[in-house]
């Protein structure tokens, strides 16, 4: 599977309700950084019941 943003092989893929998105390592890291700067990450932590260490 290829990265959603570029033509490299995907390192991470997520499937939800039949929709699959795959990302290479670089784009995965970029998305994580964007999420870390937003309130979306806190909402995700709550949904997944993740405690901060």
Principal-axes shape call: globular
Task: Supply the helix-strand structural class.
Answer: alpha+beta
Which segments are poorly predicted (pLDDT under 50) over 5 or more consecutive residues?
none
Q: What value does the average pLDDT take?
A: 87
Counted by DSSP, the helix tally is 2
Biggest sheet layout: 2 strands, antiparallel
Can you count the beta strands? 2
From the alpha-carbon coordinates, what is the Rg to the nearest angstrom? Answer: 13 Å
End-to-end CA span: 33 Å
What does this structure look like?
This is DUF6757 family protein. There is one protein chain. This protein is of the alpha+beta class. The protein is 40% helix and 19% strand. The chain has two helices and two strands; from the N terminus they run E-E-H-H. Strands 1-2 form a two-stranded antiparallel sheet. Strand 1 and strand 2 form a beta hairpin. The protein is globular. The model has no long low-confidence stretch (mean pLDDT 87).
């Amino acid at each position: 599977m290829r990265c959603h943003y570029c033509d490299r092989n995907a390192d991470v893929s997520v499937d939800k309700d039949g929709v699959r998105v795959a990302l290479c390592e670089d784009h995965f890291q970029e998305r994580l950084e964007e999420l870390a700067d937003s309130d979306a990450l806190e909402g995700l932590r709550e949904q997944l019941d993740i405690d901060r260490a």
